[in-house]
Structures are given as structure tokens and as C-alpha cells.
Design goal:
Layout: E1 2-6, E2 9-13, E3 22-31, E4 49-50, E5 60-66, E6 70-78, E7 84-90, E8 96-100, E9 105-106, E10 108-110, E11 116-118, E12 126-133, E13 142-150, H1 151-156, H2 169-173
Parallel strand pairs: 5-13
Antiparallel strand pairs: 1-2, 2-3, 3-6, 4-5, 6-9, 7-8, 7-12, 10-11, 12-13
């Protein structure tokens, strides 16, 4: 598998897996909406960076710097003729199955307790999203990881901030979603 950052997201060439074609994983920005199910507003792509300093575990790894108001969707676009199983897990939790391109978006991942959580970065921390392409329900396939990193953590480390602006309460109000943070 060859994974690289492209204009639309992470581009995977799947020829080495016995499948002809490619899969593009778009890392899309949305709002945090704990009580709302279904599609949330698409606020555009998030910046992706190679994760050279994250610690390779096998497979490709990428950083997606986010502000505290950012949540993430993964948009799967496949040129493979058959349905392509894509399994997503957060921080080592259970996998959520999508069939690309028929399930183009995933906005929540299962937690170990069975509840579902939106993909976000914890305050001044990081969250790892593992994406397993192909394989069976229990093993195999190709693995890549996207690390959602809080922009303030980058600032403290003296690294470059995200290119997109932080969301504000008005951005949430425009989409009828309450601002998820305390007003202080």
C-alpha cells in the first residue's frame, strides 16, 4: 500500500493488496454535536501532515491539527469496483465498519462501553484514529493512522498551527448546533 497526502485527503494505492484502484480518505472538518445524529455540516478539509515524529507502529501515519471546536468526519471515495471494507477505531477501541464507497461518511466511532463518540482531539492532547482497509472482521488488511492533535499542544511545542481558523460560537449558531464549551 502506498499512502500519501493529496489534494482531497490521504490517497491509498491498493494495487499491492490484490485490488485494482485506490481509496481516498478525506479528513473533513465539522462541529461537535453530542446529541445530534446523521450528517453534520461539512466545513471543509483539514490540513494533513506526515507524522514522522509520532512513533511508527507499522503502516502510514498522519497528523491532523485541530482547534478545540473541531470534530472530524472521514469521507471515503473508492475506485475499487467492489465494496471495500474500511474499519475505523479510536484510541484502540472497537472498530466501526464502513463499506466504501457506499458508506461515504463516518462521524462517530464506538467506544469500549458501546457508546459512540465523535472524532475530536482531547484538550492539549491527541487522539489516534486507526483505519484498516480490507482484511477480515478480526485481522488483516492495510493499516494507517490519523492523529488528531490539539492545536494548542502544537503551539506549546513551538510547531506550526493549523492553517484553518478556530471556530467560534457564531459558527455553531449558523448550523443550529449549541456551542459545546462553557462561556467564561
Amino acid at each position: 500500500m502506498v499512502a500519501e497526502i493529496g489534494a482531497d485527503g490521504i490517497q491509498l494505492t491498493l494495487d499491492e493488496t490484490g485490488l485494482e484502484g485506490c481509496l481516498v480518505i478525506g479528513v473533513r472538518r465539522t462541529v461537535i454535536a453530542a446529541e445530534r445524529f446523521g450528517l453534520l455540516p461539512d466545513l471543509g478539509p483539514l490540513e494533513l501532515r506526515p507524522a514522522d515524529d509520532v512513533g511508527q507502529r507499522g503502516g502510514a501515519e498522519f497528523l491532523a491539527p485541530v482547534w478545540r471546536g473541531d470534530a472530524v468526519w472521514l469521507d471515503f471515495t473508492s475506485t475499487v469496483r467492489a465494496s471495500l471494507p474500511v474499519r475505523v477505531s479510536r484510541d484502540g477501541g472497537p472498530e466501526t465498519l464502513c463499506l466504501a464507497p457506499h458508506d461515504p461518511w463516518i462521524d462517530r466511532c464506538r467506544r469500549l462501553d458501546g457508546s459512540r463518540a465523535q472524532l475530536t482531539a482531547p484538550a492539549e492532547g491527541a487522539s489516534r484514529i486507526d483505519i484498516r482497509v480490507g482484511g477480515s472482521d478480526v485481522s488483516g488488511g492495510e493499516l494507517l493512522s490519523v492523529h488528531l492533535v490539539d492545536a494548542m499542544l502544537l503551539a506549546q511545542a513551538g510547531l506550526e498551527l493549523p492553517t484553518h481558523d478556530p471556530l467560534e460560537p457564531i459558527d455553531y449558531a449558523e448550523h443550529n448546533v449549541p456551542w459545546p464549551f462553557d462561556q467564561r
